[in-house]
Amino acid sequence: MALTPARRAAIPGGRIASAARGRVPHLRTLLRRLHLWLGLLLGLPFAVLALTGSALVFYIEIDRLLNPQIAAESSAPPPGWSSPVWDRALETARSTWPQAAGHFSFEATGRPGAIPARYYAPGGDHHHSDPLMLWFSPDGTQLLREARWGDYLMTFFYDVHRHLLAGETGNQIVGWLGFAFLVLLISGVVVWWPRGSWRKALALKRGAPPIRTLRDWHKLIGLASALFLLLLSLTGALLALPAEKEWLLAWLVTPMEPVPSPSSALPYGKQVPVATALAAAHSALPGARLAWIDVPGPGDGTFRIRAQVPGDPNHRFPYSYVFVDQYSGQVLAVHDARAGTSGNIASNWIRPLHDASVGGLATRILGVVIGLAPLLLFITGLLRWRLRRRAAALAPAHERTCA
After folding, report:
1. Residues 218-226: contacts with CB under 8 Å, at least 24 apart
2. Does pTM top 0.85 for this prediction?
3. 8-state DSSP, 1
4. Backbone dihedral region of 325: left (phi > 0), alpha (psi from -120 to 50 degrees) or beta?
5. What is the spatial distance between Cα 107 and Cα 126, in angstroms, rounded to a whole number?
6. 148: helix, coil or strand?
7. Interatomic CA distance for residues 293 and 80, integer angstroms
8. Strand partners, 323
């Protein structure tokens, strides 16, 4: 005998199932509204951050194309641990700015050509000050170009992407926006998740009205890019919020081992040559690839040598350091990326996953393409919302006419 709705409701299990069915649509409706309004509010900043991120994937290559004076050709191999080029470049820098009391940072790109460098004024550091960007000839004897960070296109893109041109406050905003983007993306997937045919849920209906076509394109673009955008949003948020990153990794994995911050034994004396500091650092990290050389100014600062050890996924900004006393040339501390905690290892993967540098050219191209998705999602979502509002505004007038 078939059960009537009244009889079905009288069965305890039936009441539970009926109540559950009543709650699910209500929850999906709330999530749909949440996704809609988050998309309208955050869609444009999401698109801006993603587009600037796409440009930054090929930041170095684009900047070299825009500034041919630094595309210096050289038949000599790129300078490494034992090259005299570093001392020549430092001499050129100090003769150009004899009163400079800050520190110079030279990049070992591993490629022939100009030597990129940066100058940080006293009190400045790598995270909270804008350096003077420098490029030296391959032999270190000439200054090819100088430009203040933020005054040329690619660093402008970087500042928009990093903190929306709003300094440390903007950095916090970008970080928390990253977590908000996670909510936006997850709510979109949950709202789409099919309760029936997956084939229909994944279909692009041809010849459909514009409102349906926009919905289908929004859905398909979102699904194709969702996993990548989730990863980029999470890693971007963690890069922008280092304190929160350390807390989260300590909670989920293990506390991170901090990078040492030693000082030279004496605050005065004659600084040893860069070659001496490099030789000491190379002995402390044999087999590592040289990446950056930070040369301190007067005082108790140290040489900070940054290098990539096997297993470190970061090519340009690796996480192994050797600190060398600038007056004695003795190694004061070593931070080896291989010897860190599980939290350190997890942290080391955040940047290369975010900037798409892990995996080579194919991954970088994918990163550029995925960076276009938020703009397409914002446009399709906005147009569909406007069509729905227009249809809702016209419906009462049509009904009155028919009456």
Report:
1. 218/377, 218/380, 218/381, 218/384, 219/192, 221/373, 221/376, 221/377, 221/380, 222/185, 222/188, 222/189, 222/192, 222/373, 222/377, 223/189, 223/192, 224/373, 225/370, 225/373, 225/377, 226/185, 226/188, 226/189
2. yes
3. -
4. beta
5. 13
6. strand
7. 11
8. 304, 333
DSSP class of residue 178? H
Instruction: Identify whether the C-beta of residue 341 lies closer than 8 Å to the C-beta of residue 255.
Output: yes
Give the distance from CA 67 to its chain's centroid.
Answer: 24
Neighbours of 363 (CB within 10 A): 15
Q: Helix or strand or coil: residue 335?
A: strand
Structure tokens that stand for 368 in this block? 């550029």
What tens digit of pLDDT does each residue of 325-378 get?
999 999 999 999 999 999 999 999 999 999 999 989 999 999 999 999 999 999
- Tell me: the pLDDT tens digits for 284-317? 999 999 999 999 999 999 999 999 999 999 999 9
Can you list the alpha helix ranges (DSSP code H) found in 97-166?
Answer: 153-163
* Two tokens, residue 146: 């100088």
Strand residue runs (E) in 5-155: 103-107, 115-120, 132-136, 143-148
- Structure tokens belonging to residue 35: 């996704």
How far is the C-alpha of 321 from the C-alpha of 193, rounded, in Å?
47
Domain borders along the chain are 5-57+157-254+367-402, 68-151+258-339
DSSP assignment of 211-254:
HHHHHHHHHHHHHHHHHHHHHHHHHHHHHH-HHHHHHHHHHHS-
- DSSP letters, 288-306, are PEEEEEEE--SSS-EEEEE
